Each structure stands twice: as C-alpha cells, then as structure tokens.
Amino acid sequence: MTSADPLAPALPSPLAEVRDDRFSRHGVRLLLKRDDLIHPELIGNKWRKLVPNIEAARGRTLVTFGGAYSNHLRATAAAGRLLGLPTVGVVRGDELAGRPLNPSLARCAADGMRLHFVERSAYRRKGEPETLAAILRAAHAEGAYVIPEGGSNAEAVRGCVALGEELRDRAGIVAVACGTGGTLAGLAAGLAPGQRALGVPVLRGGFLEAEVRALQERAFGACTGDWGLEERFHFGGYARTTPELDAFAADFEDRHGVPVERLYVAKLLYALTALAEEGAFPRGTSVAAVVTGRPFPDRAVQATSR
Question: Which of 121, 205, 219, 240 is deepest in the core (most CB within 10 A)?
Fold first, then answer.
C-alpha cells in the first residue's frame, strides 16, 4: 500500500516490554504488541483481516454481519467511508429496527453503512446458502462481497500470518484474545518453530478449537503451528464484563499508561496475569500480548450489553 492510500498502515506495530511485578516475581517478561497503533480507524486485527477481503472484493459492495455493539461492523463501515465503497451491515435482532441507534450503530450509519436488521433465528442460520441468499435479497445486496461475522475467513487468516512473522523469535508465548478465531489461526501459522500461540476466547461455549482448525484448513490446507486455548476468562461471554475485570483494567492503565479495551484486551491481560500468578509459565519465559483494540467513548454502554 502507498502512503496515499487511506488504509496505509503503520507496520510493524511496536513491541515493548512493560515492567509488572505480577510477572517479574515469577521470572516472566511481559511484552505488549501494540497492534492498536496500526491505523487510526481500522484498529489492530481489524486492519489485518479486512484489507485482504477488501482487495478480494474488487470494488463491490461489502456486506458483513454483527451484533449491536460489533467492532467489526464499525471497522467495515469506516473502511467503506475511507475508500468510497458501499457497505451493508446485517445486524442480529430485528427488534432493534425502528429504535434509536446505540452509539456503535450510530457510528456505522454516520460512516455510510446501510443497516439491515435480521430476526435472531434467521441470523443464526446465515451460514446456510438459502438463508444467506434470502438475507441478501431482503437487504438489496445481491452480488455483494460477503465478509463473515467477525471478519474471519481464509483471506483474513492469511492476512494475520504477518502478525506472527513480526513476532518471530521475540517471545516464547504469543497471546491474543479471540472472538471468531481468525487472528489466532493466522498468528500461529506465522510464528517460528518453538513459539506457541495462546488464544483467550471472549465467548462461552468451547467451540473455538474446531473453528480455528477449520479456518486453518481453509486457509492453508492443513492445521499448522503450535497453538492452544485458555477458556476460563470470558467473564460470562461476549460484551460481558464484571466490576473485577473493570477494576483490573483500570489498574493496568494506571500502572502502565496503556489504554485497555474492555471486551477483548482486558480479558487477555487478566488471563495472562492469572496464569503468571498460577506458575503456568516457566521462569525465563517471555510472553507477548497482542493489543488488538483500544477503548471507544461508548465503552460503558458496550460493557453492559450482549
């Protein structure tokens, strides 16, 4: 990409050690991979996943899916505005139609995204060809380029390989918060032998291992890299936080001067801190945490919503 390109990134993103006694007293180094600094509007893994899909779309309308507080919808809308591409956001929950837009959806609309609200049972079946076709017809988006919920497909996974390559031999463990698994799938493929990728799911359900394997199969033809999941730290599921998690995030911000996004990054950092205190990392281990997002002004609204 050229400097004139509105999606031109600042890569590689910075990698910096933070001094934290909760890690150092166990002989563990904590590093932050600041992917939140890649682009001012397509933050972190959103840039890495969206740009390959935008290139594949070749100027077609972009259609994608998400809930009422989806960062992926917001990033897609921002990309559409920056590039002059039409975007359609298929939003879970037809009961939202006609209501005042929350700050997240209002941002999407302000960026030119046309919102189409879908009944929840149909939304759950959006992966079925007939249901998808019906949704596209109802949204007047036939012939558009479809990006899946969360942006995770083979193009996105291959786009995230560079994240692993930027971290080759920089840390023994590279950890990332996971929603749909695409970032973890690509990250693991880009790391060097001897490094391990650790995913921290922010949703309940225990389904993500199969999803990551399927994504790697589609992107590379086989599962690849050394990776695993730590599923204890979802705090009730997507868009759920607790006073304990919020207090942890605020304390981390005070200690290190780094803004902590609550729905993904806070859960990742909490998980790594708990694992360090449990002795899960051998002394001498370097752990890199991928900072995939930053707080939005409407964070408090997000934190209490599904």
Answer: 219
